[in-house]
């Protein structure tokens, strides 16, 4: 399995801090934010990782992370030329993924749980990670079938959430995800949405 960290976006809500660097490179406690999702993948045994960032500060990632040798891994980099959504950023990694399954994590997500067993036992389809939250309307919300534990559908920021399960920024997909992305149409925001991929 290959790992993908999506670290694009403008970070407009953190302006003016993001005027000089990418938000994923800002410190969270004692290390850059991107170290947390990176550690999630490394702990899961994934050593071949692509980092997708926007154009503005792409060189900062290379300067900070290098080839991956310091992490016992191999890093590859890709540029998302414009803000086109998470699914569009994921589409840029198709050649890197080759025929492998992929674990995809957003560069500003911090997970405390070890997800190694779930990632290593993945066999087919897709797996998304959920978190019960008190304010689900702020997130993509999963409606879960209680009997099977399977996700029925995901609604993006619903006024009346069907559950309190927010979709986190960690996903596992088989290689068919790239064919699904090719069928998507841009949302009202003009972006290819990861919620549409997951549905």
Record keyword descriptors for this entry.
199 residues, globular, 7 helices, Spore Coat Polysaccharide Biosynthesis Protein SpsA, Chain A, two-stranded antiparallel sheet, alpha/beta, 6-stranded mixed β-sheet
Describe this structure in a few short sentences.
This protein has 199 residues and is of the alpha/beta class. Helices cover 22% and strands 28% of the residues.
Q: What is the N-to-C succession of helices and strands?
A: EEEHEHEHHEHEEEEHH
Strand order of the largest sheet: 5-4-1-6-10-7
Inertia-based shape: globular
Number of helices: 7
CATH superfamily: Spore Coat Polysaccharide Biosynthesis Protein SpsA, Chain A
CATH architecture: Alpha-Beta Complex
Largest pleated sheet: 6 strands, mixed
Total of domains: 1
Number of strands: 10
Terminal CA distance reads 22 Å
Structure report:
This protein is α/β, with parallel strands linked by helices and 199 residues long. It has one domain (2-121, 169-198): Spore Coat Polysaccharide Biosynthesis Protein SpsA, Chain A. Helix content is 22%, strand content 28%. It has 7 helices and 10 strands. It has helices at residues 35-43, 58-65, 86-91, 94-97, 116-120, 177-182, 194-198; strands spanning 2-7, 27-28, 31-32, 48-54, 74-80, 102-106, 126-132, 140-144, 151-156, 165-173. It has a 6-stranded mixed β-sheet. It has a two-stranded antiparallel ribbon with strand order 2-3. β2 (27-28) and β3 form a beta hairpin. It is globular and about 45 Å long. The mean pLDDT is 93.
């Amino acid at each position: 399995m290959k790992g993908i960290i999506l670290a694009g976006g403008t970070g407009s809500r953190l302006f003016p801090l993001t005027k000089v660097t990418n938000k994923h490179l800002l410190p969270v406690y004692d290390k850059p934010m991107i170290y947390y999702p990176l550690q999630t993948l490394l702990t899961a045994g994934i050593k071949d990782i692509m980092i997708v960032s926007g154009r503005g500060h792409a060189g900062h990632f290379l300067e900070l992370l290098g080839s991956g040798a310091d992490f016992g891994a191999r890093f590859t980099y890709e540029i998302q030329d414009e803000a086109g959504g998470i699914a569009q950023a994921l589409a840029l990694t198709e050649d890197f993924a080759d025929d492998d399954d992929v674990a995809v994590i957003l560069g500003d997500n911090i997970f405390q749980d070890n997800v190694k067993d779930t990632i290593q036992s993945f066999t087919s389809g897709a797996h998304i990670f959920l978190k019960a939250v008190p304010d689900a309307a702020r997130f993509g919300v999963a409606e879960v079938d209680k009997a099977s534990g399977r996700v029925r559908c995901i609604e993006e920021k619903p006024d009346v959430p069907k559950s309190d399960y927010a979709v986190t920024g960690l996903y596992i997909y088989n290689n068919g995800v790239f064919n699904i992305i090719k069928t998507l149409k841009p949302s009202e925001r003009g972006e290819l949405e990861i919620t549409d991929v997951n549905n």
